[in-house]
Every structure is written in structure tokens, then in C-alpha cells.
Amino acid sequence: VQLQASGGGLVQSGGSLTLACVASGRFERLNDMGWYRQAPGKQRELVATITRGGATTYTDSVRGRFIISRDTAKNAVTLQMSYLRPEDTAVYYCNAISMTIDHPGSQPVFGTSWGQGTLVTVSS
């Protein structure tokens, strides 16, 4: 499974950006999809996730400012970011849990895939 992310850039504090990610490759379906971020000198952290059914979770620092959504038919996930703050500056990575069935009747195989990362810079 390949994930292609786009939409990063430079924005002023208080501004908005929308990140998009599209999955391609061989899989039966995508289960949970999400966005993570890694700021300079820090560990990668979860930003938001969305289940196949549309249930969402957010890290506390972005709740109320970011909205995650998905288009299951297009294998895509989007992160709408508003009221951006300098501390939101990071490389953002999309993530997907895929299910593959190699042969009819075989057990499903689950895998985790990551996009290449897209840089979001928020200036003060």
C-alpha cells in the first residue's frame, strides 16, 4: 500500500491548511486511517484517527481546531487544520491500516502503511 500526502506549506499563526492523503496499491480495504506529526527534536505523535465507520479521535492539543475526514470510496483521508499555532509546526504523516486477502478463503493480512510526510510550518 502506498500513501501519497499533499497540502503542507507555510502559514501564519491563526491560519488554515488542509492536508490530503490518497492510498493506492493492492488491498481489500482500509480500516483505520490517521495523521501523525513529528516536530523537530520530538517523537512522532498521533494527531487524529478515523475508523472505517467514521468514528474519530483527536489528541487534546488539536481537538476543536482540526477535523479529520475520509472518503472510503476514494481511499482518501483529509485533515482540515484551522487556528494553527506555531507549535503545530511539524512534518505530518498519514497512516493507514490495510487488509489484504491473498487467496479466496485465506486469512486476512493486516498491514500498516505510512505516507512520505508533508511539512507544515506555522509562523508567529
Describe the overall structure.
With 124 residues, the protein is mostly beta strands. Helix content is 0%, strand content 57%. It is built from no helices and 11 strands. The protein has strands spanning 2-6, 9-12, 17-24, 29-38, 45-50, 56-58, 66-71, 76-81, 90-100, 109-114, 118-123. The strands form 2 sheets. Strands 2, 4, 5, 6, 9, 10 and 11 form a 7-stranded mixed sheet that branches. Strands 1-3-8-7 form a 4-stranded antiparallel sheet, with no helix packed on it. It is elongated, with a radius of gyration of 15 Å. It starts with a strand and ends with a strand. 30% of the residues are buried. The model has no long low-confidence stretch (mean pLDDT 96).
What are its keywords?
four-stranded antiparallel beta sheet, 57% strand, 124 residues, mainly beta, 11 strands
Brief summary of the model shown:
With 124 residues, the chain is mostly beta strands.
Give the distance, in angstroms, between the N- and C-terminal Cα atoms. Answer: 37 Å
> Gyration radius, to the nearest Å?
15 Å
Helix fraction, binned, reads under 10%
Number of helices: 0
* Global morphology: elongated
> What are the segments in which pLDDT stays under 50 over at least 5 consecutive residues?
none
Helix-strand string: EEEEEEEEEEE
Mean pLDDT over the residues: 96
Structural class: mainly beta
Main sheet summary = 7 strands, mixed
Strand residues, percent: over 45%
Q: What is the total tally of β strands?
A: 11
